[in-house]
Amino acid sequence: AAFESFSGFIHEQLKFFYINGTKDKIDFPIRYKEKVHKKYKKEKGKTDYFYEDLSWFLDNKAISEQEFQFLLQIRELRGKFVHEMSTCIYNGISKELKDKHIELIRLYQKINAWWVKNIEISINSSFLTDIENTNVKNLEIVFLELLEKIAIENI
């Protein structure tokens, strides 16, 4: 759930930005394709919106190269986890996977805070300008942190 929430979040934020960040709302598909899709598209292969959107956040210094690579790795692990869910249910989840899940939530929080501080506040000056990155959380992050706390306490 955390990965789907995270990947949906970064895509929706960029869509929101390219719709509301311009005067011409009709231009969204063209602006998104130029600023994100075409700019970060892999040379070969099919469209990979997660890679393209994540590349935009890397290029805009919301995440580091190391965090970028980690998130790509998480996507691969997510696929493996989904296909081997019954094994994970019976055998439990490794400490390494738990640690990666915690890091995913941390990066989700980091990007969310970066977005508010660097995009939302710059577009809408009525927002408070002294928001600390660590204090900004959306409801999905609060929910994921709660689920994580419950899971850790029950292990």
Structure write-up:
There is one protein chain. This protein has 155 residues and is an all-alpha fold. 73% of the residues lie in helices and 0% in strands. It has 7 helices and no strands. It is globular and about 45 Å long. The two termini are 19 Å apart.
Secondary structure layout:
Elements: H1 2-20, H2 28-40, H3 49-59, H4 65-83, H5 85-91, H6 95-123, H7 139-153
Helix pairs in contact: 1-2, 1-3, 1-6, 2-3, 3-4, 6-7
Biggest sheet overview: none
What's the order of the H and E elements?
Answer: HHHHHHH
* Quaternary assembly: single chain
The number of helical elements comes to 7
Percent strand: under 5%
The helix content, as a percent range, equals over 70%
Radius of gyration using CA atoms only? 17 Å
Compute the number of strand runs. Answer: 0
Uncertain residue ranges: none
Overall mean pLDDT score?
77
Structural class: mainly alpha
**What form results from the Cα inertia axes?**
globular
> End-to-end distance, in Å?
19 Å
